[in-house]
């Protein structure tokens, strides 16, 4: 061992049972026990508020477009702007999480974007409206810190559930905004404000809550089970990794590019629907603003159980059938999401349209949870970069679908929905190309005698291993052996001599 050997963190007791990395091996959802469950509740609530802020506009668009004299093209451009800023912000957030930790990274971004929410209330042109939505949309990058944080706090057997619940309850903010904003608007109008003043005042509500949750994360959050990044690096309990190394190992792993593409056609589609569905029901079925918003809210509110259900399903299938099972169920559910989207675009009456929309929302949001049941296993060293790439891919998918199908008047909204469903089905096929040599893929068996240690140790040079920088990856590799599944008998468990030779 070299002189730079990383010290083992001192043994400490936790309220929950933990593995060798001190990650929780159970997920008691009603608990707020620090640091694991407290981090869960802080991060989903912060992300929820950011989501409400980012999608506070769509349910009020019929009023805002009249006040600002916006055309269909103006509205389409603003919708694209609301998700485009977060593309690079999510990639940057992933890297920031790897380097400074999720607590500081997420709280800082949430505070920096809160002023854009408040500024929405003073916009007086289509351009100003577009810019406000663009900068507010940066806050959606807190999704990456949410997933990174949960992957750092919870062990492989329950990480899909933790990621699914944190992401799903956060995404629920898109549906909550469809309910909250019309109610706040109506209340302000009843107090005596004009309609063109009421929508502006309403934006102070999401801005205020976004700011409050940022301070809560900063004050009460903790990066890792053993403490915050800065303290652990100063004490020598954690290796301070190099920016170039983290980026390199993230970008070179093709699996991260595939998850980015496929996430673009589950979460990206969800973002697109959040932007268009209220106006679609308002215009197509001649509904009032509140009714259209309530119907649209059911799409986003399905995240309360759909995305968490996808994460839990990924963990359940993973325990029985390993990583290959996780991949198969992800492909199946996301493909069904594409099929129901096609059907939604062909519906012509309101009752069946609502029913199909709910089915579509369940499938597409479950697919999001299933995706992030796979992401934590792609790279241990560059977890944040892979999470950021995948999250950014979601926003790219939203940009592409809105540019092609929902910008201007080239396609009707219903025809755009049909074509978008076809694109979901086509792009989801790429899940079949994800292959882990120690676990296999959808269509291929694992490589004989290739172990989890072989895979995760490949991210470290011999010199880094001699200095002990690889210890956290080694522990993660050991804990990830559960991904072989109880039904897989082809993978070989490394013997003690093989493991010790890698230490």
Written account of the structure:
Its main location: membrane. There is one protein chain. With 503 residues, this protein is mostly helical. The chain folds into two domains: 36-219 and 239-441, Growth Hormone, Chain: A (Up-down Bundle), CATH 1.20.1250.20; 452-502, no CATH class. Helix content is 69%, strand content 1%. The protein has 22 helices and two strands. It has helices at residues 36-54, 61-68, 72-100, 102-119, 126-137, 142-153, 156-191, 195-202, 204-220, 229-235, 243-251, 254-263, 267-284, 289-301, 306-346, 350-371, 383-405, 413-428, 452-457, 462-466, 471-479, 496-502, and strands spanning 435-436, 440-441. Helix 1 packs antiparallel against helix 9, helix 4 packs antiparallel against helix 5 (126-137) and helix 13 (267-284) packs parallel to helix 17. It is globular. The N and C termini lie close together (9 Å).
Spell out the blueprint of helices and strands.
Elements: H1 36-54, H2 61-68, H3 72-100, H4 102-119, H5 126-137, H6 142-153, H7 156-191, H8 195-202, H9 204-220, H10 229-235, H11 243-251, H12 254-263, H13 267-284, H14 289-301, H15 306-346, H16 350-371, H17 383-405, H18 413-428, E1 435-436, E2 440-441, H19 452-457, H20 462-466, H21 471-479, H22 496-502
Antiparallel strand pairs: 1-2
Helix pairs in contact: 1-4, 1-6, 1-7, 1-9, 3-4, 3-5, 3-6, 3-17, 4-5, 4-6, 4-9, 6-7, 6-17, 7-8, 7-14, 7-15, 7-16, 11-17, 12-17, 13-14, 13-16, 13-17, 14-16, 15-16, 15-18
């Amino acid at each position: 061992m070299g002189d730079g050997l990383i010290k083992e963190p001192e043994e400490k007791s936790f309220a929950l049972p933990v593995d060798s990395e001190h990650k929780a091996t159970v997920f008691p959802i009603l608990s707020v026990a620090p640091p694991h469950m407290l981090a869960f509740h802080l991060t989903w609530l912060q992300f929820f508020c950011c989501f409400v802020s980012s999608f506070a506009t769509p349910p009020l668009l019929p009023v805002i477009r009249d006040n600002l004299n916006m055309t269909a093209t103006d509205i389409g451009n603003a919708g694209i702007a609301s998700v485009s800023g977060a593309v690079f912000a999510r990639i940057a957030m992933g890297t920031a999480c790897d380097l400074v930790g999720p607590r500081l990274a997420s709280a800082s971004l949430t505070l920096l974007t809160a002023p854009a929410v408040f500024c929405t209330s003073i916009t007086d042109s289509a351009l100003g409206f577009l810019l406000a939505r663009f900068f507010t949309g940066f806050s959606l990058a807190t999704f990456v810190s949410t997933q990174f944080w949960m992957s750092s706090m919870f062990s492989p057997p329950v990480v899909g559930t933790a990621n699914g619940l944190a992401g799903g309850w956060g995404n629920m903010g898109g549906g909550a905004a469809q309910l909250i904003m019309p109610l706040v608007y109506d209340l302000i109008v009843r107090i005596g404000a004009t309609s063109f003043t009421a929508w502006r005042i309403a934006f102070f509500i999401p801005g205020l809550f976004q700011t409050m949750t940022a301070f809560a994360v900063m004050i009460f959050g903790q990066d890792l089970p053993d403490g915050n990044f800065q303290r652990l690096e100063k004490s020598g309990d954690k290796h301070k990794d190099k920016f170039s190394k983290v980026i390199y190992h993230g970008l070179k792993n093709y699996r991260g590019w595939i998850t980015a593409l496929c996430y673009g056609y589950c979460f990206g589609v969800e973002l697109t629907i959040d932007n268009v569905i209220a106006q679609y029901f308002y215009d197509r079925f001649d509904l009032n603003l509140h009714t259209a918003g309530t119907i649209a809210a059911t799409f986003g509110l399905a995240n309360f159980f759909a995305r968490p259900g996808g994460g839990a399903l990924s963990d359940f299938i993973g325990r029985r059938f390993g990583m290959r099972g996780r991949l198969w169920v992800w492909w199946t559910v996301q493909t069904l999401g594409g099929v129901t989207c096609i059907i939604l675009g062909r519906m012509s009456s309101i009752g069946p349209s609502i029913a199909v929309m709910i089915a579509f929302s369940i499938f597409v949001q479950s697919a999001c949870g299933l995706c992030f049941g796979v992401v934590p296993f792609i790279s241990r060293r560059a977890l944040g970069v892979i999470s950021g790439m995948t999250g950014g891919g979601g926003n790219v998918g939203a940009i592409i679908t809105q540019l092609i199908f929902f910008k201007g008047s080239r396609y009707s909204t219903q025809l755009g929905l049909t074509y978008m469903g076809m694109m979901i089905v086509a792009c989801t096929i790429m899940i079949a190309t994800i292959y882990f040599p120690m676990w296999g893929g959808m269509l291929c068996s694992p490589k004989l005698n290739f172990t989890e240690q072989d895979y995760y140790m490949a991210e470290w040079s011999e010199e880094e291993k001699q200095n002990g920088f690889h210890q956290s990856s080694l522990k993660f590799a050991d804990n990830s052996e559960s991904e072989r599944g109880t039904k897989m008998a082809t993978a070989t468990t490394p013997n003690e001599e093989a493991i010790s030779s890698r230490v």
